Amino acid sequence: MRSTIQSSRPRPRLVRCSVVHGNKPSYESIVPPWTAFTRAEHAVATPPAPQKLDRRTKDGRERTRSVALKERPVFFRDACSCPKCVDKTTSQKLFETVDIPLNIEVQSKETTQGDDISVTWRNDIPGYEHHTSIYSKSSFTKWGTLEGRLRASHSVMFQKPWDRTTIESKNLTLDYDSYMNSPSTLHKALDHLHKYGLFFLAAVPSDTTSISTIGTRIGPLQNTFYGSTWDVRSVPSAKNVAYTSSHLGFHMDLLYMADPPKVQILHCMKASTDGGESLFSDALAATFVLLKDPVANEELRLSSLFSFPVTYRYKNDGHWYQYTRPMLETSHNSYRNKYLPDHRRITAINWSPPFQAPFEVFTDQLSLTKFIRAAKQFKALVEDNAAVFETRMDEGTCVVFDNRRILHARRAFSSEGGERWLRGAYVGGDDFMSRLRMLNEEYGVLQAAEDKVEASV
Asked: Taking the complete model, does pTM exceed 0.85, yes or no?
């Protein structure tokens, strides 16, 4: 493995975290150890928390539940999953939330022998008189906070930003047969894909249908104007730079569409040319470094990365796709990462210079200047030698990566005396998360010991 991106142009000043390793300040890693952010100098000032009830005691648990039911009766009534409220066959609600009377309240509650709680309601939904709701003892824990509710649905899980050194030690390569036949191996693969943004498969059969079997193991293939599967090989008069032998810079695919694919899969069929090495860089790591630096936030006005509208376009060969989006997309809810308390959780990063169009929604020169200054820093970070993971895709290998997080690039290769042929496919984000949630529910969340002190991004 090697990582080298050379450029004769002057580089903008890199924003680097001032983390000390041993006695010397270093930037050997683009992402400092997460434990560094537990130190006092990185602590976020917060007011003293109110005194909490001790849930470890039976009396404390009872009082906690009583307070929750009294303060949020509509929420708990809406969450009832008894057979009268949720059809056990279709898993669909049998009442509408808007039918819940706003003056509903707890009439009585009892603790069952299993430490669950049984609730009857006063002013319940018409037709639900004498209705009883049963809540497990874990409900009051997982529903007590936004983070708890998101984790209960596996909507927030650990992600680990990486640099070259980190991914070289954490990189995961799995056997194709094990991936295809072992549910636990699939779970390990998709968990790693979510945490680190990529994994590799080895010993993949040299069959044009292998790409489909790999993708549908995760979910239905996302069909595009390229088809459900496609080939990457150099052709004369190519309609896409990917179909040439030229250098292809860091980018993400299909940002000119309203719903870009979450998962991209590339299976190497032929690799007998000189050059053509694959390059990967974690855009989440670069974003994290930028946002954690108070000087960069102040000088570069990084808020433009969340708001400035960038237009992407593909207009060629009878197609015209176009979409405008900010560089950083965030979750719709108010959940905050504790290491980035000033920002909502980042759900997608958009960076694809080869497919960028003239700015469709141009505001003013000042706004454009702010965006470009911040984007220059981002570019410098993702292309830094310390950030880039380089590997040569040999025949029979396959890479699966997160197209909304991981940037990919390719070195130029010789088109004479050899062949470079990749087969590709996409899987949508909803399908990927559906499979991962079900695997988490069946086998449990795979959480390493270090996850307990690392960031949940």
From this structure: no
Contact 280, 408 (CB under 8 A): yes
The DSSP secondary structure of 113-165, one letter per residue, reads TTS-EEEEEES--TT-TT-EEEE-TTHHHHTSSHHHHHHHTT-S-------HH
Buried b (16+ CB within 10 A) or exposed e, 133-157: bebeeebbeebeeebebbeeebebb
Cα Rg of the chain (Å, integer): 25
User: Exposed, middle or buried by CB within 10 Å (0-12, 13-18, 19+), for 396?
Assistant: middle
Residues 357/322, Cβ–Cβ less than 8 Å: yes
**Residue type (1 letter), 97:** T
Neighbouring residues of 281: CB distance < 8 A, sequence distance ≥ 6: 250, 382, 383, 387, 388, 389, 406, 407, 409
Tokens read off for 299: 């000088």
H/E segment holding residue 75: helix 73-78
Burial profile 199-232: b = 16 or more Cβ within 10 angstroms, e = fewer = bbbeebeeeeebbbbbbebbbebbebebeebbeb
Structure tokens at 128: 């639900």
Contacts (Cβ under 8 Å, ≥6 apart) of 138 = none
CA dihedral 200, 434, 283, 330 (to 10 degrees): 180
* Each residue's pLDDT tens digit, 223-254: 999 999 999 886 544 445 555 667 789 999 99
Evaluate whether 292 touches 342 at the Cβ level (below 8 Å). Answer: no
CB 335 within 8 A of CB 146: yes
Please report, in angstroms and rounded to a whole number, the separation of the first and last CA atoms in the chain.
27
The closest of 244, 260, 282, 229 to 410, measured between CA atoms, is: 244
What is d(CA 227, CA 111) in angstroms, rounded to the nearest whole number?
Answer: 57
**CA-closest candidate to residue 395, choices 167, 154, 207:** 207
Instruction: Show the low-confidence residues of the chain (pLDDT under 50).
Output: 1-30, 32-51, 53-56, 236-239, 449-457
- Encode pLDDT of 342-397 as tens digits: 677 889 999 999 999 999 887 789 889 999 999 999 999 999 999 999 999 999 99
